[in-house]
Amino acid sequence: MKRVLMTAVVAAGVCGLLAIAADEVTSVNAVGYVKQNLQRGLNLVREDFLTIDGADATPEKMIGDQLPIDTTIYMWNGATYDKSTYMEIEEFDPGSGGFVVVDTNWNNASLMLDPGAGFWVRIPPAAPETTELTLLGEVPNNPTSTIPIGEGLNLVGSPYPVDVKWVDTDLAQQGEIGDILYVWNGATYDKSTYMEIEEFDPGSGGFVVVDTNWNDTNITIKVGQGFFFKKATGATDWVETRPYDL
């Protein structure tokens, strides 16, 4: 069942919020946000929203100065990680004969934090135990979203800002033997494997395949949460249908 999202309208430059289910709502240009408390170390995140002004979804645009100096974003490109680090920008100061900090920014503007893309956020050891990150933007209203899935590891996320049970996604329903879902829980991975379900057959005295399914059907992909998906063979398109009405 689709859920109707409570939203507010962009008016006079003021952004409203999305968060909860409601019976009905009339709105245009719906804007929403997700707040997350990121821990020191690794956090697996996704961007749920589009930029409000249509600009590229760079780290500077989507995250800005919310995270500590030396925070690094890692995006998997299918073979290795592309990264961007939030750092101090220094310039030489003739008066002191040394370098001084003149700005802070992300050192790689080529990463695109679009809906459906998952990424690691590594908070440095010297940072507070938790750091709040607010990801804000326009709520996606496209009827479907297509995310290319390659053979092997993919770092992705659901393209719409709602919690979704893994087995209800189009990607899970395309499952083939050997596909694996990995969801980071802050310390290790919770995982579910698409596999043959066997039962004992008294007639043959052995086990026979009676079905195929994910061996953990209870995993929920939460708002703002990225995950790894290992495609056993071949490539496919994950075509997810918008689960709400605006």
Which descriptors would you attach to this protein?
246 residues, mainly beta, five-stranded antiparallel sheet, 2 helices, disordered N terminus
Report on the structure:
3% of the residues lie in helices and 50% in strands. By secondary structure, the chain is mainly beta. It is elongated. A hairpin with a 4-residue loop joins strand 14 and strand 15. The chain has one domain (3-245). The strands form six sheets. A five-stranded antiparallel beta sheet has the order 5-9-6-7-8, with no helix packed on it.
Q: Which geometry do the CA atoms define?
A: elongated
Ends distance: 14 Å
Detail the poorly predicted runs. Answer: 1-27
Number of strands: 20
What value does the Rg take, in angstroms? 21 Å
Major sheet: size, sense and barrel closure? 5 strands, antiparallel
Ordered list of secondary-structure elements with their pairings:
Layout: E1 3-5, E2 8-9, E3 21-22, E4 30-39, E5 41-46, H1 59-62, E6 72-76, E7 81-93, E8 98-106, E9 118-123, E10 130-138, E11 144-149, E12 152-157, E13 164-165, H2 170-173, E14 180-184, E15 189-201, E16 206-214, E17 220-221, E18 226-231, E19 236-241, E20 244-245
Parallel strand pairs: 1-20
Antiparallel strand pairs: 1-3, 2-4, 4-10, 5-9, 6-7, 6-9, 7-8, 11-19, 12-18, 13-17, 14-15, 14-18, 15-16
Summarize the structure.
With 246 residues, the protein is mainly β. Helices cover 3% and strands 50% of the residues.
